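Hey, sorry to bother you again with one of my protein questions. There's a protein on my desk that I can't quite get my head around. No rush at all, and the record is pasted right below.
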Amino acid sequence: MKTFKKIIKELSTRRETIATMESCTGGGVADAITSIEGASQVLKFSAVTYSNEYKIIMGVKKETIDKYTVYSMETAHEMALNICKFAKADMGIGITGKLNKFDQNNNCGKNNEVFISIYYKGRYYDIDVYVDKKSRKANKLVLIQLIIDKIEEILFISD
């Protein structure tokens, strides 16, 4: 199982920072980052925005949620961009989706579809994925691994 160790080391070397706005992962990405020594040098801020209300407070436009739904790549984009701006970070991660649960407040979207957007240097790097584990915890672990892989791709392959 991969960790954020290599990413934290690289971001530290570059003197760059990261911030997260998570919904369905419930802070799992921030937890995975802060489980690594040196995380305090790179993690600027993290927010868990389960409700539409707090996504909007953190900068996601209500119009975006109304037009595309809270479970969309457009919402993930705004989450990633706005957490980046809010924290004055170099990289922002936005995650929204449903994990094994009907959402009475948002009767839309497909169960177990998750939208992840990583905003870095003016560009969005997206992951649209269906997870199929029986437990929320197992699905969160799958998502964290996908995020680690994507950030490593961004930092080490895209340069």
Remarks:
- The chain has one domain: 5-157.
